[in-house]
Design brief:
The protein is mostly helical. 18% of the residues are buried. The structure holds zinc ion (ZN) (2 copies).
Amino acid sequence: MRLQYFMSSRFTYLRYIALYLLLFVAALVQYFITAGSSPGYVLDAMETYNEANTLFTRSPTASKHTASSKNGSLMGTVDNSHSGRNSLGRSSWSKMVLEFYPPGTSMRVLTCSYCNIEQPPRAKHCHDCDKCVLQFDHHCVWLGTCIGQGNHCRFWWYIFEETALCLWTGILYITYLKTSISGAWWKDLIMILLLISLVILFIFLLLLLLFHSYLVLTNQTTYELVRRRRIQYLRGIPEGLFPFSKGVCRNLYRFCCARSSINNMERLPTALELEEKLRPYTCLDVLTCRCC
Ligand SMILES: [Zn+2]
Ligand SMILES: [Zn+2]
């Protein structure tokens, strides 16, 4: 009977340790996945858009030069048609970006002076990556990459796993200290100092997780929240209004399921749409789940 109890408690302990190790490995793998994933660069989006566009469009410049290639100047033909396609691609990209800004407003499309490319709304140039990032959140020094439209979800999961791991480590630590501390507490001073660091780290991670969860639910980015008054397209919008929010459920769906692509770029809301968002809630709105 005693042996049976010992075996069962031993098995529970081993399962507990295995689960802890599994979480540790998952957090480590998530770190590398997030660090290696693309945040969604504007240049990549433009190239994808142009590639899709050139399948359907054939420029007169390109046809003209193809004809000249038959007369022998192959090098000139390739270069010229390429530059022609490039300039055409750029102009069609500019047109496409312009559509993301409300028509008839004084809002001007920002052109990044470093990448020489028109930025869609919510994009920003990162000086560490030296590229424009779609739905720029921040540049994470710990991961060595930008956090943007393409990897924000992975980043959230990484913080979540780190927070869970930190909490579990803390519990294991406290359990160990309870059994090992006896008499002279100063002998375990290092252990206590380590526990204090762990608690501080846990509080930091938990606050970060809550902060990013809030951003997800309201469809905001860290950059937009911190620099709200300096961002052109957010100027004049009241503090409590989230212009890109489409309701909690749809914000969550977009965050979890949408991938970084042109189709997921968000256009700026028009004045009418903003007014509608500002409208106070009625009983009917509550019944029809307007907030979701
Ligand atoms: Zn740029
Ligand atoms: Zn960056």
